[in-house]
Design a protein that fits this description.
It is built from no helices and 32 strands. By secondary structure, it is mostly beta strands. The two termini are 37 Å apart.
Length: 412
């Protein structure tokens, strides 16, 4: 039963601890885990009554499901102008929402894709000097870098990419590397790129090439630095500086979209195509290639699209068809499972002791972190939502189907 509660009642990239951050510079934030820590965002807003903590709303050109990212007072995102066949990177001013620049990156026929996909799915990554974005040019995977003023710095062809469901590969910054996953049905790969030049540092060819869309997740513990990548029939741990495979776990799931998440030193992996996987894995177990490192298997309500978020030992997830749950990372035991909206594609975010769950209709379900189910409230923007929100200081930046929004406390 849903209960509404009143409102009154890496150090560096390898950290997995949620810390306050002014810049949400890549997919799922600076630590690639959806955890914003303490930020002080408002709990009440409305897209129909824009006096309720809507700082600005600006219309977006084109169609895209990539998420916004924030760096140095600017918001970056990608879009596709379908009529013009152009893939575009956009830059907006964080303070006003005004578009600062727009750059056409590729002009090519629209790729074959899933009906719930777009031709601009990949979220950019941004560092102090450059913004990195990826698109599909016919059947070629293209990675492009611009400076913060929109000047193209370099462009790299990463090879052939075949995927009937479309293209998505969000690059992730990890210390002095740009990590890019290219799992597809032709010849999957995982590679590290030098951000300043686009040079390849290392490249790993996947042994089970099959389409997946998951992003790499950095993790560090006991002096052991790893990058965890879901896809190609399992979970693989890589040494970030060399690309060496540290260990692998094979799963009944072949294709992954949701990223792994680490909670209390347990790596949770979840997928549902063609079979369900919702497993807890010990990333520190000494055996290199053994499923003995699997701590538990709890396959009901496995996740497909939406990446989960962890707070301490609790992990929160939501299925594409709207079943939300919270479980104990150590045991896999579900604390609760509740119906929440109809369809979901945005990944979850933790901020200020709350879990933000955006559904396809643009409704944000705000949960209170804890083992008991507590739905604090629902906020409506009145537009469709497929993208994961970004935290910018004490504000929220949200992409909906037709607009970009900034949500924050209005000065009184």
């Amino acid at each position: 039963m849903i209960r509404l509660f009143p409102i009154g009642l890496l150090i560096a990239c390898l950290s997995v601890v949620g810390l306050p951050a002014a810049d949400w510079n890549q997919f799922r934030g600076p630590y690639s885990n959806g955890d914003a820590g303490k930020a002080g965002i408002p709990l009440v807003w409305s897209g129909t009554d824009q006096t309720q903590n809507i700082l600005w709303k600006t219309d977006l050109q084109g169609i895209g499901y990539s998420s916004p990212v924030v760096k140095a007072g600017k918001v970056f995102l990608t879009t596709c102008l379908e009529k013009e066949l152009e893939r575009v990177v956009l830059c907006h001013d964080l303070e006003s929402g005004k578009q600062l620049w727009s750059r056409s990156v590729i002009k090519a026929p629209l790729e074959t894709r899933h009906q719930l996909s777009s031709c601009a799915n990949s979220t950019p990554a941004v560092d102090d000097q450059r913004v990195y974005c990826s698109f599909l040019d016919k059947d070629r995977f293209v990675l492009v870098s611009h400076d913060h003023h929109g000047k193209e710095l370099w462009r790299k062809d990463l090879g052939k990419y075949v995927n009937k469901h479309g293209f998505c590969s969000s690059p992730i910054l990890c210390n002095d590397l740009l990590l890019v996953a290219g799992d597809n049905d032709a010849a999957g790969f995982f590679t590290a790129i030098k951000p300043s030049t686009g040079e390849t540092v290392w490249r790993h060819e996947r042994k089970n090439p099959i389409r997946s869309f998951s992003v790499p997740v950095p993790y560090s513990k006991a002096g052991m630095h790893q990058v965890l990548l879901s896809g190609c029939r399992g979970l693989t741990s890589f040494e970030p500086q060399t690309g060496k495979v540290l260990w692998e776990v094979e799963t009944p799931t072949e294709k992954y979209v949701a990223a792994a998440v680490v909670a209390d030193d347990v790596a949770l992996i979840s997928g549902s195509s063609p079979a369900n996987t919702l497993w807890g894995v010990d990333p520190l177990f000494s055996a290199k290639a053994s499923n003995d490192r699997v701590l538990w298997r709890e396959n009901s309500n496995a996740l497909y699209t939406c990446s989960p978020v962890a707070v301490g030992s609790r992990v929160y997830g939501v299925t594409d068809n709207g079943f939300a749950w919270c479980l104990d990372a150590k045991t896999g035991k579900k604390f609760w499972t509740e119906r929440m909206g109809k369809a979901h594609h945005a990944s979850l975010v933790h901020v200020d002791g709350h879990i933000l769950v955006f559904d396809e209709e643009g409704i944000c379900h705000i949960l209170v972190d804890g083992p008991d189910f507590k739905l604090l409230r629902r906020n409506r923007l009145g537009d469709s939502c497929h993208a994961t929100p970004a935290i910018a200081g004490n504000t929220l930046v949200v992409r909906t189907g037709k607009a970009l929004w900034r949500i924050g406390e209005k000065a009184r």
